[in-house]
Amino acid sequence: MIGFGTWQSADGDEAYHAVLDALKAGYRHIDTPQRMVTKTVLARPLKILALTVTNSS
User: Exposed/middle/buried for 19, CB within 10 Å: 0-12, 13-18, 19+?
Assistant: First the structure.
């Protein structure tokens, strides 16, 4: 299993775009740090991808 690590990502748009691109590339394991701000930022691309998958089914 290969995961995408986010512990060095800056909060905000950089982390958002990095995770969204990783999910689009096929990553399904996103490793997040303990910082709550980062977890909140990383939830955005997960929600967008979930809506995209749900709407295309």
Answer: buried
